[in-house]
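Q: For a teaching session next week I want to show students how multiple molecules come together into a single three-dimensional assembly. I've collected the sequence lines for a complex. Could you give me the predicted structure tokens for the whole thing so I can convert them for display?
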Amino acid sequence: MSTTTDTLTLPARARPSAGVHRSRRTAPPAVGQIALHAAFVLACVATLFPLAWMLRTAFAPPDDVFRATLSLWPDDPTLGNFAKAFRLHPVATWFVNSLVVAGAIALGKLAIALPASFAFGVMSFRGRDAAFGLVVGTMTVPYVITLLPTYVAVVGVGLYDTLPGVIIPTIGHCGFVVFFLRQAFKALPRELFEAARIDGAGPWRQLLTIALPNVWGAVAAMAVLSFLGAWNLYLWPHLILDAAEHKTLSIGLKLFATTGEQGGEWGPLMATALLAAVPVVALYLLAQRQIVSAFVTSGVR
Amino acid sequence: MTVAWRRLERSPWWFAGPAVAAAVAFVWLPMVATFGLSFIDWSLLRQEATWRGIAHYGGTVANPDFHLALGNTAIYLAALLPLQIGVPLTLAFALVRVRARLPGRVYRTALFAPSVLSFPIAAVVWLWMFNPTVGVLNTLLGNVGLAPQRWLSDPGLAIWGVIAVAFWKSFGLNLLIFLAALANVPAEVTEAARIDGASPFRQAVDIELPLISPALFFAVVTTVIIVLDEIVGAVDVLTEGGPFRMSSNLLYFLYERGFRHFQFGEAAAVAVLIAAMVAAVTWAQFRFGERHVHYD
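A: Of course. Below is the structure for the complete assembly, covering every listed component.
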């Protein structure tokens, strides 16, 4: 990192005039630019190395996995680790479970957050601000303080070791989605709804035919963010799901990891980790703009 | 259709009701219940409540394992706060000075990539790299003539292994937050500083840094939340809090008390303590944010 700082302290003499470069911020001179690029390439290589190593191990044949090597790609790549992973554990079921959990949580959050944020952002009624505070205030509640009673309740209603037991309580944590979508609805011009109201359109039609088509970007951002968050859940499904074939990928990984330390099923473990990482990385690359905007607004969740 | 029916049908509570009900049922009620649980003895097996007053708090505070978890939480924070602020901040200052657009975007994409993974995925990837016999980190050390390390089973080293993974997995988020804040710094301000002869370093420290200070505080909060509320996925996969609880933290302590030993009352007391800490930091951030707005 010191290289990066050094480039910032370079003297500013040799800089081209501001008129030539349309760059928003004045950048250091050409030598500085080269040093900057060098530093960033280094930082990116270091950041991506663990992922490259996972990829390499996932495709390496067993004898290659345990070779002390630094080569980034196995000599004869194989899909054997995936086959073995599927033999050792119900990985395909985990994958489907992860999809079901993440999909249901994302859809569920949108299903209750969309009408609510429309009401909070566009309609006016008594008790609106209090209700909004109640919903959005959940953003400030650390998730750990809801854990024990929710666990007891899930066990009590017989949803222990079921996917709905994971899904339903998580849908309730939708404060941020409501907050984000309300901003989007509030930004819409009021006249849009006046005209519809005069035509006799009720609030549901206003939401579905007028408001929704104008906020697809925000909805997509929230769908992706909720999906990512749910795909990556750890502690909650870990507590609720017990049987091996009920687990999700994130928590199933640990079954390999514990056997891996002694037995050394590292190839199949990395193959499974790759399967768990591919959907989120793909989603990230496809919807980068939405994810970035949502992440920046949300902080963490 | 009567007028009353039409009014009922159009009631905003059909829209807002489900979200309000969900917030109450799955966040506010459980929160109150956790508070209540921390004062009683109760278990799933023997569903009978005995009032214990503040005994669980007393017992927790007196528990040596709690001291260890608290101390480790302090180490996690002391290590991760400077890392999670300093490194992304330096990267953000540097990244906005990269002139070429496409490489700039590629760098950002690559640096943020680990942040979309979950803690357990990040943890197993590193678990493999940390492997004492065939892990790539020891291969690297061997290649430069250094002795191999027992990264996660050395009591003095384990916590730093978890810290490394947590940093790798989450610094990208703060990078994005800082980049977004820097994008809002008016170009004229830095331009004026440049014309006055300020070096890029001085521009960054004297002009931009104060202007993005709310983002700094926000990043502090996200880091505290990661340590107090989220890191458990990494701890559980990498070390299970070990060896000898040397990498355990408050959340892992809660998990052990509540879900390994099923001491719900004690676990609830720990949850209340964690929540109080998160609340204190969040409150401080709000206060700071307010002051900053007035200052502007």
